[in-house]
Amino acid sequence: MDWQLIQSAKSAEQRIALFLFLQQRRYGNPPNKAALALWKGYRSHDIGKCLYRDILRLNGNVAQVEDADVREYLTRLLTSLAILQSHAASSHQPQS
Known about the structure:
The chain contains 5 helices and no strands. It is mostly helical.
């Protein structure tokens, strides 16, 4: 993942657009693999944490994204992120 390129973006919208471009066009990743790349970035890079928060803030506004393909990709990406987050939370729960 090209975190330096994403870090060069000046706004949340630009960071998200760059991330989506890289994941879809450069790497050809489906939303679940993009979510995993973002999750790994969140855990290892400050810009990954920033981008993760940017995308989570977008969650309530996905319906406003004009491009239907981008809207569907984002929806699936957010669903995959929620699953990853849930698995991470459950793995940190004490076993009874």
